[in-house]
Write a structure and sequence with these properties.
446 residues, alpha+beta, 3-stranded antiparallel sheet, 14 helices, elongated
Amino acid sequence: DSEVFYDFGPELGLHEKSVYKDQPCHVNCDCGRFLEIGNSVFMQYKKTKQGFSQLAQKNIDFGGGLERILAAANQDPDIFKTDAFLPIIKQMEQLTAKKYNDHSLADEARSEQTRSFRVIADHLRGAVILASDGVYPSNKEQGYFARRLIRRAVRYGQNLGMNKPFIKQLVKPVVDIFAQAYPDVEAQKNKIEQALDQEELKFLKTLDRGLKEFDKLLTAKQELTAKQAFYLYETYGFPLELSIEEASKNKIKLEADIDNKFAQHKQQHAAESRAGSEAKFKGGLADQSEVATRYHSATHLLHAALRQVLGDHVSQKGSNITGKRLRFDFTHDAALTEQEKQAIEQQINDWIKAKLPVTKQVMAKQKALDSGALAFFVERYPDEVNVYTIGHDAQGKQGDEQKGWISKELCGGPHVSNTAEIGLIEIFKEKSASAGVRRIYARVKN
């Protein structure tokens, strides 16, 4: 291996204010004079159980950092002053009315301000490129990584006084940087702006409450535990890194091995959620009480009402039922208006007041689907299924005006036998669950 360093000159390491000015200078010191811009790896051997043996085909692999090579060309070791970042930095300076490297500030304050600029520029660039490849912020897989980038950028924006949405305005400079090399980025600019803006707005709604909760949790105990960090993550969308940074800023110590313990809490929560979902899918409920059964039937009415008010594009994406409320996820690309929520609630309650029968049939899955029955995760159902129909006629096909029923779904149950048993319903919350998916909460009126 041979490492390639660029020498920016002795004045960087010997500057009168440099903490390194009285120390010996070498290529791996931190004075800023030398920057590794690449390395060459000479591949000659492979490791075996008997030791090292010669490769049949030897080669040399050069790894070079684009931004670092640009920094060398600019004669400035700061990669954030290169064309790969500077347009984003300039836009941020305009938005914040602050300078990237403000020498009028004390050293510690200047360093923190510069760091905030860098984190935002780096994270926004990554999030935009991810989005151009179809990876949008969400709570799953690659989407969670994109979400972490945006949320961390938002938090650092607050360090610069940005308490209002600003992420959307940083998409254009990123697009301008990469438009020639990656035309897809420019073609998707509007879509990316909208998606990142929605993610920022979503996070801002919980950020202040989350920070207050953070302070409350740590008032009595000056330690951040994995359990507390997971609570902040699950309730307020705080990535673990954000909680750790807040703790560091407030000089609060961390529980030993917090990363692994946080991962254990997350795995346990996921396992419990899966178990609950599997139980409901098999016909059970996490809560087997009478009121939970009523809520289970109410989700079928809610699904039917959503499709009637919003359109047939609505389909169920998930649900969660307790003895106190129901939660229902469905496909829709916009927040519900007050008029739409009122119309949905009124329709459900009209069906409840109508005292409609709820009947169960056992039939072949394909026959059930052909009759117009809806299904959530069709492939998971066995060949013979339970079909629950709400209405006076269990016959007919979807779209048949004479069908009589208002809801027909494949389901494991349990259900009430008549809609009047449910009780009148009220919708008390509606929000975004992920891109293109809304989440609605409802409960039985007191």
